[in-house]
């Protein structure tokens, strides 16, 4: 039976086993998918030990090991190179390991599922940490008119923009949003502010009621950022639960060649929040 796991710290909260077992049921595959708690010191040995088992076909890696595993794999996908991080390890037939990142595809697929247009859109991405870096390539591949990364620490936004130099991709300081005149079609919050119930300080003027607002975080109720947008009259607000399931679906596809139907899984998870 094929074996998978997710490494992280903390890891007890991870929904990945639940998600992947639902995918396997859809696919008619019998798999085991566990959670593995690791420390910075034992992560690499724990990873190597996992793959000693011939049944171990792949694993997911979450915070804080995504960068460490990118240095361990034999090969990186183009997206993982740009992200500097890996969330999916695939054991290839020759026994070597490919590191990929599925967060960007998970986000983009969720946006498309929600009928949010990316091609030709003016997009504001809040935050310039690992979460932002992981989705840049996938967003830019769909040719937005503009992708503006705005971050509290300006230098990080500028560094991000340098990763994929092109005219429609810029990095600015959050404060510079005051100078933006044209509204955005889509605003994506990738900051970790939602996790601590904080609102990134952006002027209300950039949030037009016709925009789509997407928060990569999710909870049992709308995040503070989504609540704020709703108060400003925005109708299209979405949290990141669909992205979570979308990135898992992409990992499952990379391992098994089967594309799961994400909708029943999103609905099931939503009912358990
Ligand atoms: P992650 O992997 O979740 O992206 P990270 O790499 O630590 O985590 O990045 C967190 C991001 O959220 C950063 O862009 C951070 O801004 P700074 O670079 O200025 O630190 C942003 N962030 C966190 N809390 C924030 C807040 N209260 N307001 C605005 N931005 C915030």
From TrEMBL:
Entry keywords, A to Z: Amino-acid biosynthesis, Aromatic amino acid biosynthesis, NADP, Oxidoreductase
GO-annotated biological processes: amino acid biosynthetic process; aromatic amino acid family biosynthetic process; chorismate biosynthetic process; shikimate metabolic process
Record: active site: 66 (proton acceptor)
EC class (word): oxidoreductase
Taxonomic source organism: Paraglaciecola psychrophila 170
Reaction catalysed by this enzyme: shikimate + NADP(+) = 3-dehydroshikimate + NADPH + H(+)
Gene: aroE
Family matches, as InterPro entries: Aminoacid_DH-like_N_sf, NAD(P)-bd_dom_sf, SDH_C, Shikimate_DH, Shikimate_DH-bd_N, Shikimate_DH_fam, Shikm_DH/Glu-tRNA_Rdtase
PANTHER family reported for this sequence: BIFUNCTIONAL 3-DEHYDROQUINATE DEHYDRATASE_SHIKIMATE DEHYDROGENASE, CHLOROPLASTIC (PTHR21089:SF1), SHIKIMATE DEHYDROGENASE (PTHR21089)
Pathway the protein contributes to: Metabolic intermediate biosynthesis; chorismate biosynthesis; chorismate from D-erythrose 4-phosphate and phosphoenolpyruvate: step 4/7
Assembly mode: Homodimer.
SUPFAM superfamilies: Aminoacid dehydrogenase-like, N-terminal domain (SSF53223), NAD(P)-binding Rossmann-fold domains (SSF51735)
GO MF, one example: NADP binding
Chain ranges of the Shikimate dehydrogenase substrate binding N-terminal domain: 6-89
SDH C-terminal domain ranges (all copies): 240-270
EC number, as in UniProt: 1.1.1.25
Residue span(s) of domain Quinate/shikimate 5-dehydrogenase/glutamyl-tRNA reductase: 117-194
UniProt cross-references to HAMAP family, sorted A to Z: Shikimate_DH_AroE (MF_00222)
CDD domains named in the record: NAD_bind_Shikimate_DH
NCBIfam families attached to this UniProt entry: aroE (TIGR00507), PRK00258.1-2 (NF001310)
Ligand binding (NADP(+)): 127-131, 151-156, 216, 240
Role this protein plays: Involved in the biosynthesis of the chorismate, which leads to the biosynthesis of aromatic amino acids. Catalyzes the reversible NADPH linked reduction of 3-dehydroshikimate (DHSA) to yield shikimate (SA).
Protein name stated in the entry: Shikimate dehydrogenase (NADP(+))
Family recorded in the similarity comment: Belongs to the shikimate dehydrogenase family.
Gene Ontology terms: cellular component: cytosol
Residues that hold shikimate according to the record: 14-16, 62, 87, 103, 218, 247
């Amino acid at each position: 039976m094929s074996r998978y796991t997710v490494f992280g710290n903390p890891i007890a909260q991870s929904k990945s086993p639940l998600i992947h077992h639902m995918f396997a049921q859809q696919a008619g595959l019998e798999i085991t998918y566990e959670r593995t708690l690791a420390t910075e010191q034992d992560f690499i040995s724990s990873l190597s030990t996992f793959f000693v088992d011939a049944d171990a076909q792949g694993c997911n890696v979450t915070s804080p090991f995504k960068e460490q595993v990118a240095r361990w794999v034999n090969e990186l996908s183009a997206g993982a190179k740009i992200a500097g991080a890996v969330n999916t390890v695939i054991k290839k037939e020759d026994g070597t390991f490919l590191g990929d990142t599925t967060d960007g595809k998970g986000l983009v697929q969720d946006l498309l599922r929600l009928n949010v247009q990316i091609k030709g859109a003016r997009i504001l991405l809040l935050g310039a940490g690992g979460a932002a870096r992981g989705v840049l390539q996938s967003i830019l591949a769909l040719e937005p008119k503009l992708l503006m990364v705005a971050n509290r620490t300006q230098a990080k936004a500028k560094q991000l923009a340098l990763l994929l130099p092109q005219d429609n991709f810029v990095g600015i300081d959050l404060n510079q949003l005051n100078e933006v005149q044209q509204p955005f079609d889509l605003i994506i919050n990738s900051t970790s502010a939602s996790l601590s119930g904080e609102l990134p300080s952006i002027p209300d003027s950039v949030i037009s009621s016709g925009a789509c607002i997407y928060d990569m975080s999710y909870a049992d109720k709308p995040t503070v950022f989504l609540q704020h947008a709703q108060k400003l009259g925005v109708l299209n607000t979405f949290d990141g639960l669909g992205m979570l399931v979308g990135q898992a679906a992409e990992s499952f596809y990379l391992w098994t060649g089967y594309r799961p139907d994400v909708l029943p899984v999103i609905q099931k998870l939503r009912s358990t929040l």
